[in-house]
Amino acid sequence: MKMKGAALFSGKDSLYSIYLAEKLGIPIDYLITFITTFNRPSGHLENINALKKIAEKMNKQLFIIDLKNGIDGFINLLNRINIDTLVSGDVFIEDHVKWLENICKKLNISIIEPIFHRSSLDILKEMMEEKFKAMIICIDNNILSEEWLGFILSKDTLDYFLSKNRNIDPLGENGEYHTLVLECPLYKNPVKLLSWRKYRVNNYSYIVCEID
Questions:
Q1: Do the Cβ atoms of 35 and 45 come closer than 8 Å?
Q2: Which residues are CB-contacts of 103 (< 8 A; sequence separation ≥ 6)?
Q3: Domain boundaries in the chain?
């Protein structure tokens, strides 16, 4: 029987995990993006329309799940789409991995975490070598200066970015920054950035993009 998979989907880490899973022969048919409530802006949720267009570029169906009323919507979706594998792009957050593992165990779904417990620096370098390009769409101003908002991470710019930001986790795993992937091997064609606007809420700055 052919495997059928879904993946959690937002920024560069999740897309690289999807890429690695598909290289292993695990087809990802569905993407799942969570809506969560924080006391700060989320660069990914502010750009949910861009994520919808990116899903179209990958010929994958995107489901958006609001978690404000609990996990029932997520569980019901997993049952409905009848997958056997869930892919996630966690690196360090043990609690999130355990949360997903508990849900998947109850539903008899395998969970794959391709980059979990790996070096952030190694992952980011590998990602760029595989021709990923990602734009920084949200930053914590207490950690990064606003000049990095809109910066394009690529194989050509990575060393410069790391040399100027030596005290952060390279992947931004502590919330230093979040990204929107503009180019990667999963896309039929690169994302075309049409326009963007910059916003600031407390110590967070983010941009909302219009893409094609």
A1: yes
A2: 71, 74, 75, 78, 109
A3: 5-112, 120-211
> What kind of architecture, by CATH, is found in domain 5-112?
3-Layer(aba) Sandwich (3.40)
Rounded average pLDDT per 10-residue block, the chain, 212 residues: 83 97 96 83 87 95 92 96 96 95 97 98 98 97 96 98 97 96 95 95 94 94
| pTM of the full structure | 0.95
Give the separation between CA 153 and CA 182, rounded to whole angstroms.
10
Tokens of 31: 């993407």
Determine whether domain 120-211 maps to CATH 3.30.450.40: no
Beta strand 61-66 with 193-201 is unpaired
Q: How far apart are CA 164 and CA 43, in angstroms?
A: 22
Q: How many Cβ atoms sit within 10 Å of the Cβ of residue 85?
A: 19
